[in-house]
Every structure is written in C-alpha cells, then in structure tokens.
Amino acid sequence: MSVGTTLLVIAYVVIGVFLGERINLLCGKLVRYLSFMLVLLTVYDVMLRYLFQSGSVATQELEWHIFAALFLLGGGYTYARDEHVRVDIFYAGFSARRKAFVDIFGTLFALLPFTAVVIWAAVPFVERSYEILERSSDPGGLPYRFLVKGLILGGFLLLGLQGLAVLGRNLRFLFSSSGEGSGGGQPQVEAELSMSESPESGGIG
After folding, report:
1. What DSSP letter does each residue of 38-74 carry, written as one string?
2. 190 domain-assigned
C-alpha cells in the first residue's frame, strides 16, 4: 500500500469516527426527496401505459436509477437511525454494555470487511464504466449510466463511514466513566440523533 493510499485510509477512518453520523444524516435528509420523485415518476409512467398506450424506456430506466440512489445512498442513514432489519432475537434483551460489545464485534468482523470487499471489487467495475462513458444499451435509453454505477462506491463509502461512527460511539460509551450504570447504548444514541437533527441544537438541518 502506497503512502498516499495509507493517508487516504487514515483520513477516511478519522472522518468516519468523528463525522460519519452527521454526514449520513445530512445525506439521508437530501436523498429522501427522491422517494417523492419516484412516486410521481411511477404514476406518470403508469398513466402513459394504461391511459395512452404509450411508454418510454428512458422513464423506466430513470425509475430504476432513482431507486438505486435511494437504496445505496440511504443505507448509511438507515443504519444511523438504527432502523435496519435485525435478525438477532437475543439483542433486544441485552444490557447497554453487551449491546455495545455486539455492535463493535459486528462492525469490525462483518460490516467493515463487507464494505471493504464491495468497494475493492467495485473500483475496476466503475472505472471501466467511466472510461467508456457507459450509457444505456437500449434504444431510447438514458445516457450517463456510468454516473449511476458510481453510486455503488458512494453508497458503500457512506455505509463504511457510518460503521466507523458506530464503532467510535460504542467504544466511547464503553470507556466513559458514566457508561456503566447510565443505560447508554441505543437510547443515548437516539437522543444524540434527535439533538443533531433539531434546528434548536444548531445541528444539521
């Protein structure tokens, strides 16, 4: 690994630990408007098809692209709000400290390695798409498909930032003097998120 790459990784980790959550909350606030756009576009497409017996390849592809942006760029925000799907039936009954240990373990050995592998695998894929300025292969399709493929990197970089933020937050909780009996963990996280999103707190938004 070159010196430049090492410095980039260090900067990414530092940004993730200290700013990852705010970045994802801000991104989530911006991306959520795509949901409204997607609903309007889908209604427009259905009306064209069933009322006017017409259709548009570009409209269909735009629907797919907006959905891809919602899914990829909203993942980190969903994780920040702790609204992702959990399949662990035991986690809800754990103490705050045990939850912190589980979150740290899951972040270090599942989330961060997974995001790193996806980013590593996606770089040449996205690079090739940008080199050839990839566009839709269908007649009447949208140009600039390479921009949409770039969202793969953007989405997983945001998810990795949030993983680092969760890691740093749980480590601070475990090592804080007030952590033992305060019942911190997720209730504390929700309070921090509420404060960061409220205009009165001077946070984002």
Report:
1. HHHHHHHHHHHHHHSS---HHHHHHHHHHHHHHHHHH
2. no
Q: What is the span of the domain harbouring residue 135? A: 24-85+95-178
Question: For residue 118, is it within any domain?
Answer: yes
Q: Which residue has the tokens 């945001």?
A: 158
Is 103 inside any structural domain?
Answer: yes
pTM of this structure: 0.82
CB-side exposure of 150: number of CA atoms within 13 Å?
10
pLDDT tens digit sequence for 164-183: 999 999 999 998 855 454 44
Q: Is the pLDDT of residue 109 over 60?
A: yes
What total number of domains does the chain contain? Answer: 1
CB atoms within 10 A of CB 53: 7
171: enclosing H helix or E strand: helix 145-175
